[in-house]
Design goal:
The protein is mainly alpha-helical and 231 residues long. It folds into two domains: 80 residues, Type 1 dockerin domain (Orthogonal Bundle); 140 residues, no CATH class. Helices cover 45% and strands 0% of the residues. The protein has ten helices and no strands. The longest helix has 21 residues. The protein starts with a helix and ends in a 5-residue tail after the last helix.
């Protein structure tokens, strides 16, 4: 009788382990979007998945295996590796947007103490502004603007916002397209994207010229720089 109970317990443990393996992304338990690594993108995905079914982009989001995606799962991933995955934290120049200007701002504060205007640029909070902070900002920007989750932030993501996501809510494949956070994918999101990635022919297509792009990085320059600098 005792042996039978032991075998039952062993079987239960094995089932739980197998279920856990099925729900683990290729980058580990907290790789919610299954892109092979744990990053802020997983935090964004979890925020979208709360209250939704365990399927599609949310198939890996029930971290505590209670049959629902809720605030408990959000707390788990936030406590593990995403305590600084917010726009407010990365808006180091305090202009209301997280874009390439923030990366420039971190660079301008390089090798200084995080005081005064540079007080928010010590992203890893180690007491100095260094290469680790630049890497942190780079990764955050790449995750945030990789709208279609193909591993790159580029003009294809701009067009992904334009079509098929334009006019929709941040749902399904468009869950990252609402850059403004107003629950609607609109021209405002295209403008925000264009502040960091200027795709000239596409900008012309929707009339985003002049003040919105003036003074910001061209896409060509960004690709040339990012191809050798993404970590």
């Amino acid at each position: 009788m005792v042996n039978k109970k032991i075998w039952i317990l062993v079987i239960i443990v094995v089932i739980i382990m197998v279920q856990g393996e099925k729900k683990m992304g290729s980058g580990g338990m907290y790789d919610i979007n299954d892109d092979g690594r744990v990053s802020c993108s997983d935090f964004f995905t979890m925020g979208y998945c709360i209250g939704k079914s365990i399927s599609g982009v949310c198939i890996e989001a029930d971290l505590n295996n209670d049959g629902a995606i809720n605030i408990l799962d959000f707390i788990i991933i936030r406590n593990q590796q995403t305590t600084t995955c917010t726009d407010d934290f990365h808006d180091v120049d305090n202009n209301g947007f997280v874009d390439m200007d923030d990366l420039d701002f971190v660079s301008s504060c390089f090798s200084t103490e995080p005081v005064g205007a540079c007080s928010k640029t010590d992203l890893n909070e180690d007491g100095s502004v260094n290469i680790l902070d630049l890497i942190s900002m780079q990764r955050y920007l790449k995750d945030k603007y990789d709208i279609n989750n193909d591993g790159n932030a580029d003009c294809i993501d701009f067009m992904f916002i334009r079509e098929p996501c334009f006019g929709m809510g941040p749902d399904g494949i468009c869950y990252k397209a609402d850059l403004s956070g107003d629950n609607s994918v609109s021209t405002l999101d295209l403008i925000i994207f264009s502040r960091s990635y200027s795709c000239a022919s596409y900008d012309y297509f929707i009339g985003l010229k002049g003040n919105y792009l003036e003074g910001h990085h061209s896409f060509t320059n960004f690709v040339s720089w990012s191809n050798s600098n993404w970590f």
